[in-house]
Amino acid sequence: MLKEKIGFIGGGKMGEALSNGIINAKLSTPDNIMVSDVVAERCRLLTKEHGIKTTQNNKDVTSFADIIILAVKPQLMNDVLVNLKNDITHRHLVVSIAAGIPIRFIESRLQGDVRVIRVMPNTPCLTGASATAFAPGKYATCRRAVGVHHIQRRW
Question: What is the pTM of this model?
Answer without folding.
Answer: 0.86
